[in-house]
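INFO  loader      accepted 1 record
INFO  loader      residues=63
INFO  predictor   begin
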Amino acid sequence: MLLRGKDPAQLTRYWAAFEKQEKAIKDEAQKLMTALPPGDGRERVSQFAQAHERMGACLSQRV
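INFO  predictor   done
INFO  writer      dumping tokens
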């Protein structure tokens, strides 16, 4: 995205692709948490999902 940021059309295109992928990752993490039994595995996926959400929020503020 940073490499495409000078051209508004390219920025829009790549940002939309990023948001689509970000949502897919969030959805998959949620599915995995639902499928896993309580325990270490579910906790690790939960931690990942939280970190991923924070990362996305930080990037959204910068664009």
